[in-house]
Known about the structure:
Elements (H helix, E strand, L loop, with lengths): L5 H6 L7 E4 L3 E5 L7 E7 L6 H7 L1 H17 L6 E4 L15 E5 L7
Antiparallel strand pairs: 1-2, 2-3, 3-5, 4-5
Helix pairs in contact: 2-3
Bound molecules: adenosine monophosphate (AMP) and zinc ion.
Amino acid sequence: MTTDCLFCRIVAGEVPAARVAESERSIAIRDINPAAPVHVLVVPKRHEPDVGALASSSTEDLADAFALIAEVARQEGIATDHRIVANTGSGAGQTIFHAHLHVLGGKRLPER
Ligand code: AMP
Ligand code: ZN
């Protein structure tokens, strides 16, 4: 746990968030500033700065995150129509440097 990391603090329950699901290694929370009717963030409990670092350090954590994405997509009714996004680096729009995956759906999404 990194105490100055917002997502570590949400994982630890120190900062409130709208949790929609949880697995052994990840949590799923609603994005505070949704870009689509369904916008959930799947956040691995382990602190790594981005998904590439997560994949390098734990394939189990990476697989768990994708399994939780599938569960959330089913639960939210978007199993057959959703987009998974992982921003890496500020140039790509990453603002929180704790690995997470955006799960977007609930409307027709723009092509890119
Ligand atoms: P990224 O830009 O890929 O790093 O994504 C960070 C996301 O976290 C953004 O979509 C923010 O809206 C979202 N966010 C920031 N703070 C919170 C929070 N306290 N609870 C839920 N989502 C948040
Ligand atoms: Zn963290």
